[in-house]
Description:
Low-confidence stretches: 314-318, 454-466
Structural class: mainly alpha
Number of helices: 18
Radius of gyration: 23 Å
Order of helices and strands: HHHHHHHHHHHHHHHHHH
Distance between the termini: 54 Å
Shape: globular
Mean pLDDT: 85
Amino acid sequence: MNATEVFSTLTIALLIVPLVLAVSLKEPKLVVYGFLVAILMFRYSTWGELQPTETIYARGVGIFHFSLVNLALFVAGIATLMRKLANPLNPHLAAPLAPYFFSFVFMMLAHIALGSIAGIDLERILEYEGLINIFNMFIFMYMVVLAFNSEKDKRDLLLVFLALAGIRSLFGLVRYFVFDGDTANPYRNLEGMDIKIFFFDIADNFVAAVAAFCAAWLLLSPSVRLSMTKRLFLYGYLALEIAAIALSFRRSSLIGLALTFGWLIFLLPSRKRIPLLILGAAVMASTIVVFFQERLQYAGATDIVSSLIYDITSNNTGDVDRFYELRAAAASLDGNWLFGLGSWGRFTGDQELLAFHMGKFMFVHSGFGHIILKSGIAGLLIFCGLLFSYIMFYLRHRKHLVGNSRLLADAGFAGFLFWTPTLLIGTPIIEFRTMLLIGLCLAMPYVAAGVSARKYYVSYPHYAAA
């Protein structure tokens, strides 16, 4: 990084920190919207690029340990805490997240203390390949939940999300048909497959999936009355978002989309399920056929089913199966299953079989596996406890929600379902953008349910102080 870049980065940092703090204290929704623009519109992953590229999420790394976007998140989180402490009569946070948040903070402090005693640099303990992005997720969840306090806020949040998702997909559409698709294309650039893709970053597929869910929810909800113009617009919007996922050719995205719409079908009245199941099956079948023809034909398998799992076993090729990495990580945990290897921990294995790691063994391709590697069963219990609490909260409160509140809660839960394959076999924990989007999913049902709770406490403020 040259002197000009260093100076410009420091200048931006000096401007961002007080600005974010001031706006977060006065207009917290604006800061959340700012982060939404960043995480909905700008990619994180550059895997598959032929030339090294820098995203907005890497700006400032090298001068600071954390990126400027991450530093802004920390400042906004501090402002959120200050606002909460400055007004103790505010209603208690609807989300029962405090036990999991403080348990995670305690664990991270323990990692810092034990790592320092062992002579590990603080930068390694707090590296992005560790657990810091779970902390970032918690911060963003609290920011979202505490920023939106009215029915208008919920409606605006939905509209902003849908508008940004539409803009992002239109950008991808133009790029796909006019400029040969996403330049981050490992299928073509690294594996020699003659295909172009809509989006490679799984987070872009998530945005499209939740947007598609919202459009379908509005079209199918018996309580929503739409004009013909709005209905036609939503059909076009739905087709665009599904195309964005189908033409990205990512199996985890297709599975996530199936889970998302499977939940929508489950929520529908029984009389509407069968027609939608037939339509959904036809769309998925068509997508899988295109998927097979454009990508999985290169897997060397003879049928669609075997091609979908070609890299899970070594039957079709002489390569190692996909799960060798996890077995190698499990072997490295010998004697450390309870608390893991620490945020700085690395695993070891056959260098040739793990060549795709390029010598970096700080993470594994499983979100849950990554948590176990770094923090053991204890860390996994904290994370899974958070997810279980979230699921129970959503299921318990959904039946009491109507209108935009129900759509917001359903969309958040559908988004969580989309992420489950990635949590199982992807690398979400080491990706800043992904973890903030997961945090958004987790926050949405609490925002939906929290507004009515706030109304109650405004009417009876003595309960808020209890």
